[in-house]
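We read letters as residues; the integers encode the fold. Take this protein.
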Amino acid sequence: MDGTADTEQILRGVLDAWKAAVDAHEPERVAACFTQDAIFQGLHPYSVGRQGVADYYASQPLGMAADYRFLETRRLTDALVLGYLSVDFSFTDRQTLTVYLSVLVERMAEGWSIRHYQVSRLG
């Protein structure tokens, strides 16, 4: 297994693409960061697959932006990486929302993609 820096680099590659698409309000581009059968749990009922991800982000307000920081990372196997993060979603018309995000990222033939995405709010 590789070290923490390599694990964070893998996660950062996927999450930077996710963040750029979220910030640009491009739901289909957000969905492309996920596997075809990804389990997605935002702050609404869960969905499976890219269409559910695209629908979720299409419903988000224009001007929403995401900033993340790693809390924990684990390299589970050569093809699976786990990330636990704090994410600040900022808006143009309301206070920033801080959530906790767990992602499971898998190496696919076309590169690394999010297989599981779970958001929680604490407190």
The mean pLDDT is 95. The helical segments are 4-23, 27-31, 50-58.
